[in-house]
Amino acid sequence: MTIRQLSETVINQIAAGEVIERPASVVKELVENALDAGATRVEIVTAGGGLNLIRVVDDGSGIAASDLPLAVARHCTSKLSDDIHDIRSLGFRGEALPSIGSVARLTIRSRTADATEAMEIVVEGGRIAGPRPAAANAGTQVEVRDLFFATPARLKFMKGERAESTAISDVVKRIAVAFPTVRFTLTGADRTRLELAAEADDEVGRLHRLAKVLGDEFPKNALAIDAMREGVRLTGQVSIPSFTRANALQQYAYVNGRPVRDRQIAAAIRAAYADVLPRDRHALAALFFSLDPALVDVNVHPAKADVRFRDPGLVRGLVIGSIRQALANAGMRPATSGTA
Ligand code: ADP
Ligand code: MG
Q: Which ligand is nearest to the Cα of residue 92, counting in written order?
């Protein structure tokens, strides 16, 4: 038996297996890149539930012509120096674009503010063409066509256009809550349409964005959360017990501005409402944690949505305690029961 180094394309396809699970993962990665580039406008267009086409256009910093080949090369990033503990951006792995290029047809067209013309680079199933001159405004346009054409096994797992479109819309809403000053539009070939205007950079703007995402009825039926425990600050909004959903999809959590999916936070929300909600009803919530980045690890999974808190018990206690307190203050549960 001989051991060989795998080809770059196969290496990228293996990474894509984790990073790019479905069309919504592509949208998430491309929108994160636009936000990391300082975009104030992000336009997303999809067709066929994102399997035929995903296009994300931003007005961010753009990519210099000489950097385009690096943008699609594995482990190349402009966001992380040599310290994995100092992550301030949504991206840091340098994996998304090469992964996407290995399983789809990827075109990146970009122009920095001071460049005289735009350049484009194309990656199809791992084969790179360009960079070559192209026409485009300042900023970046990324187009992904025929997702998973190069990995038919993954293509078979897709759930159908409707389900993929819903997942895309959920991803955009989730991230949009954390960036209220950015204008987002999402247009699908079907009737999907999401338009989120840029909001003011203040509390009113944040609440307004939340209402656009969770529904205009949400603010009237929500309680504010604001608590601090041992250096961990938790702010946000949670719904009152009479304003609930049949699933927990509208529970959003953010750690230092990054949308996360955390089982323990979800469990803590459930526990906080345990004696005021039936098991099959779920509160709506937007919870923002801010803490010293050294107390939380975001480098847990390639999709960057999982986190590990240094002290999970503290976070659980903070969620349960602050939600119960807010409910008690509003006279919606007895004030006497314990916190965690
Ligand atoms: P990461 O985001 O982890 O750095 P990606 O593969 O997503 O890795 O992107 C690689 C690099 O390409 C980024 O570090 C960034 O420099 C550049 N890039 C990608 N998308 C954009 C964009 N929309 N605007 C500006 N630069 C971008
Ligand atoms: Mg990225």
A: 1
For residue 203, what is the enclosing H or E element?
helix 203-214
Flag residues of the chain having pLDDT under 70: 190-192, 335-340
Q: In this prediction, does ipTM exceed 0.90?
A: yes
Whether CATH 3.30.565.10 fits 8-196: yes
- Determine the pLDDT at residue 29: 97
Give start-end residues of each CATH 3.30.230.10 domain in the chain.
215-329
In the chain, which residues fall in CATH 3.30.565.10?
A: 8-196
- Whether ligand 1 lies within 6 angstroms of the CB of 264 is answered as no
With 0-12 / 13-18 / 19 or more C-beta atoms within 10 angstroms meaning exposed / middle / buried, residue 20 is: buried
Q: Is the CB of 91 under 6 A from ligand 1?
A: yes
Specify the 3-state DSSP secondary structure of 197. Answer: coil
Tell me the pLDDT tens digit for each residue of 30-70.
Answer: 999 999 999 999 999 999 999 999 999 999 999 999 999 99
Q: Which CATH architecture has domain 215-329?
A: 2-Layer Sandwich (3.30)
Per-residue pLDDT of 125-142, as tens digits, reads: 999 999 999 999 999 999
Instruction: Please report the pLDDT score of residue 227 as a whole number.
Output: 96
Q: Is 37 in the pocket of ligand 1 (CB under 6 A)?
A: yes
Candidates 236, 189, 190, 185; CA nearest to 214 is 236
> What per-residue confidence (pLDDT) applies to 140?
98
Nearest atom in ligand 1 to 108's CA: 20
Does residue 208 line the site of ligand 1, with CB under 6 A?
no
d(CA 340, CA 332): 17
